[in-house]
Amino acid sequence: MKYISILRGINVSGQKKIIMADLKALYEGLGYQNVITYIQSGNVIFDHSSDDLKIIKSTIEATIDKKYGFDVYVDVRKADDYQKIYQNLPFQNVELQKDGTQIVISFLEGVPEPLNIDTLLGSVIAPERLIIKENIIYLHCPNGYGKTKLSNTFIEKKLALKATTRNLKTVAKLSEMAAQ
Fold first, then answer.
1. Main-chain dihedrals φ then ψ at residue 171, nearest 5 degrees
2. Stretch 8-31: mean pLDDT, rounded?
3. Does residue 46 surpass a pLDDT of 90?
4. Could you read off the pLDDT of 48-92 as tens digits, one per residue?
5. Is the peptide bond before 112 cis (omega within 30 degrees of 0)?
6. Which CATH superfamily does the domain covering 2-81 fall into?
7. Contact present, 141 and 150 (Cβ < 8 Å)
8. C-alpha to C-alpha distances, 73 to 16, 21, 92, 138, nearest whole angstrom
9. Separation of alpha carbons 46 and 44, rounded Å
């Protein structure tokens, strides 16, 4: 089965550095096949015979912690899920080249509590738009993701859940690469 994993907060401002060739070797050392990395932020496509996402996730996290000495949240999903996430984009008239960095998708470790969702939604200021669908957040930041207060860390605090975020261009590229 084909999977995509994304790591939270590696290679950002010199923190939690992992060279992608080393990350690829780490996955291969765990017995994962057809391992491909994409850009330096910890995006990995791979095949594995297991269908137990929790075991795959915890194995990757534990191995990174053991090898590098730091804790990293890893989101693992079936490659088909990425295609659905991309296809279910709730914003209209989106052009990938134009809007691909203004729309980000946060991958949550679970489904947020309704009260926490209300708290987060109360923090959204127009023209930004935020839509939560189960354990996925779609966020449109027309003025740029770097200018919003709705950062990954902010979302994690408001929802009391771990998350990792990628822009729409990255999600689309991972989905495309996994389909090949």
1. -60, -45
2. 90
3. yes
4. 999 999 999 999 999 999 999 999 999 999 999 999 999 899 998
5. no
6. SP0830-like domains (3.30.70.1280)
7. yes
8. 12, 19, 31, 19
9. 6
Rounded alpha-carbon distances, angstroms, from residue 162 to 18, 32, 71, 111, 144: 20, 24, 12, 11, 22
Under CATH, what is the fold of the domain 90-179? Alpha-Beta Plaits (3.30.70)
Q: What is the pLDDT of residue 123?
A: 97
**Model confidence pLDDT, tens digit, residues 111-131:** 999 999 999 999 999 999 999
Using alpha carbons, select from 60, 56, 73, 38 the residue that is nearest to residue 2: 56
Residue 19 CA to residue 152 CA, distance in Å, equals 22
| Average pLDDT value over all residues in the chain | 95
Confirm if 170 and 7 have CB atoms less than 8 A apart: no
pLDDT at 13: 67
37, 44 contact by CB (below 8 A) = yes
Distance of CA 124 to the CA centre of its chain: 20
Amino acid at 61: E
Query: How many CB atoms lie under 10 A from the CB of residue 120?
Result: 19
Listed by start position, the domains of the chain span 2-81, 90-179
Q: Residue 147, SS3?
A: helix
Supply the pLDDT for residue 15: 79
